[in-house]
Design a protein that fits this description.
Layout: E1 2-5, E2 10-15, E3 18-23, H1 25-31, E4 34-38, E5 45-46, E6 51-57, E7 61-65, E8 70-75, H2 78-81, H3 85-88, E9 97-101, H4 113-121
Antiparallel strand pairs: 1-2, 2-3, 3-9, 4-6, 5-8, 6-7, 8-9
Length: 123
Amino acid sequence: MSRYFTQDHEWIDVDGQVGTVGITDYAQGQLGDIVFVEVPDEGRQLAKGDDAAVVESVKAASDVYAPVGGTVLEGNPALADQPDLVNTDPEGEGWFFKVTLADDGELEGLMDEDAYKAFVAKL
């Protein structure tokens, strides 16, 4: 499994043709206490960069963008009752949705973990 990051602070774990998407620990820290998460419906077609989900915190509401294009396999059902999973485990149980990758080549424009850490260090 490989993990990639976007400059919008999403991460994607890729296992074969399936990617699991969430927001980074940095992003959840900037948002503060998460109070609501809207995940995409199963079967929704996403293009890279599409608005895929919405996260609302005590500070703001933000869109979560699709790091790659593909078809949504499922949204994380646990977030409906426990949106704070995004705060407590943003890069684990707080994942947002799973997607089948339409084009592996779209991963090439994303950052690996070291590149993302360097990116965040400059913010």
